[in-house]
Amino acid sequence: MGTPVARHKTAMKRMRMSRPMERALADRVVRDGDAIFDYGCGHGVDVQLLKAAGYAATGWDPHFAPDEPHRPADVVQLGYVLNVIENRQERQDALRRAFALAQRALVVAVRVDRTVLAGDEFEDGTLTKHGGFQKFFTQLELREYVESVLGVKPEVADIGVA
Length: 162
What we know:
The chain is of the alpha/beta class. It has four helices and seven strands. The relative contact order is 0.19. The mean pLDDT is 85.
């Protein structure tokens, strides 16, 4: 039985680097010469911009880049992915898989604002009127979630918007 959630509809079409990757670059989480893997890359804008900046960047997305391999990298980005997965077990699995690929750092970002258009309660979040799903986390909830799933204490870099 399939899910009624159209996850790909939550992938933003941006013209610039995502906020999590901007922070990772500014905070030197991403360093010169690093390989970067964008787990759930959506339309692939971060991958394209990172490649243009000289980084070895690749990405995978179940809808937009399903045939790309999952690759270990110095830095793995899991940006705005956990909040669009409506299935709790699948959400945990995605976090674990991304973490297993990260050789030095895993950058995790989720939506923390609750300014989603009207929607209906679904699982542990909201089914939006566009058919997407959003699970909102506070900063503390995300930190506790990551620690409980991975067994490591995360460092909080920044809170921001996409």
